[in-house]
Amino acid sequence: MTLYDRIARIYDPWSRSVTEDVGFYVDQALASGGPVVELAVGTGRIAVPIAEAGIPVIGVDSSPEMLAVARAAAESAGVAGLVDLRVGDLRDPPVSERVPLAICPFRSLLHMEMEAEKLGALRAARELLEPEGRFAFDVFAPSREDIEETHGRWLEREPGIFERADWDEGSRTLSLSVRSGDAQATFELNWLSAPEWLRLLDEAGFDVLELYGWFDSRPFDGEEDMVFVCRRRG
Ligand SMILES: C[S@@+](CC[C@H](N)C(=O)[O-])C[C@H]1O[C@@H](n2cnc3c(N)ncnc32)[C@H](O)[C@@H]1O
Q1: Which of 64, 112, 114, 206 is the most exposed place for a label (fewest CB within 10 A)?
Q2: Atom number, ligand 1, closest to the C-alpha of residue 41
Q3: Which DSSP symbol is given to 151?
Q4: What is the distance in A from the centroid of ligand 1 to the CA of 228?
Q5: What does each C-alpha distance from 107 to 99, 139, 141, 190, 204 come to in angstroms?
Q6: SS3 assignment, position 158
C-alpha cells in the first residue's frame, strides 16, 4: 500500500481549494493538441478537466487507490473513454506512446527524494515526448515566512481535515502530514532552488521555454512557486 492509498478518499476534499493550476494545464493540453501524459495523475484533479476539454490523457500513478478515485471521476464526468489510467512509477512510466505534452502538476516531482531520482524522472519524462514535445510541471521552495507560520502546527485546512508541516531547512525536506478520521499519512517533499532545477533540466535534455512564478504566467521572481514549461532538446 502506498502512502497516498491511505488518504485517497480524502485527497479531493483536502485539496478542494487548489484550483488555480487547472486552467493552466488545460491550456497547455489544448495548445499541444494531445494526447497528454500526466505523471502522478492522482485522483484526476487535472486529467479530468483536460479530458473534458476533448484531449485524451494517459495518467500514471503509483497509487491504485488514487487511480480508483480518478476512474470514478472520469466516469461521472462522462470522459472515461478519454482517460487511460495506468499503475506505475513516474521514473519508469508504463507508456510506450510518444506524445506532444507531458505534465507533472502539484509539486509531485518533489516526492523524488534525491537529486539523482529527480534527474531520472526528468529523463523519463523526456523519453515520452515527440521531437520538440513539451514538459510542464510545478514545484516550490518555501519562503522563511511560510516555514515560520506553519512549522510543527496542526491546521484545519478543510472542515475535519487537518494538515501539519514539519520543515527541515538543513535537508530541505518538508514532512507533510494529513489526517481526517481514520485516514492519516505523512509525505516527504524534497525541494530544490530554481537554479538547481534549471541545471537538472539542462542535464536531462530540456530547453526551458518559460519559468513562471504562478499559473497566471507572471515571471518567476525568486518567490516560492515555480512553473516550468520545457521543450525536448534534440
Ligand atoms: C500531490 S499528488 C498530485 C496528484 C495530481 N497530479 C494533482 O495535481 O492533484 C501526488 C501524486 O504522486 C503520486 N506519486 C508519488 N510518487 C510517485 C511515483 N514514484 N510514481 C508515480 N506516482 C507517484 C501519488 O500517488 C499522488 O497521487
Answers
A1: 114
A2: 6
A3: B
A4: 18
A5: 21, 4, 10, 10, 18
A6: strand
How far from chain centre, in Å, is Cα 167?
20
Q: What is the pLDDT of residue 97?
A: 98
Which ligand 1 atom is the nearest neighbour of the CA of 108?
Answer: 10
pTM reported for the whole predicted model: 0.97
Give yes or no for residue 28 CB within 6 A of ligand 1. no
Phi/psi at 208 (nearest 5 deg)?
A: -85, 115
- Alpha-carbon torsion 219, 221, 224, 230, what sign? positive
pLDDT digits over 97-137, tens only?
999 999 999 999 999 999 999 999 999 999 999 999 999 99
Q: Mean pLDDT over all residues of the chain?
A: 97
Residue 59's SS3 state is strand
**Structural contact between residues 127 and 225, judged by C-beta atoms closer than 8 angstroms:** no
Across residues 82-90, what is the average pLDDT?
98
Backbone angles phi and psi of 62, in degrees to 5: -85, -5
Q: Tell me the three cell numbers of residue 128.
A: 515520452
Render pLDDT for 40-57 as a digit per residue (tens, 0 to 9). 999 999 999 999 999 999
Distance CA 196, CA 23 (A): 27
What Rg, from alpha-carbon coordinates, does the chain have?
17
Helix ranges (H only) for 35-184 are 47-52, 64-76, 115-127, 144-150
Q: Ligand 1: which of 14, 25, 111, 139 to mutate, judged by most atoms within 8 Å of the beta carbon?
A: 111
Pocket flag, ligand 1, residue 61 (CB < 6 Å): yes
**CA 140 to CA 174: how far, in whole Å?**
11
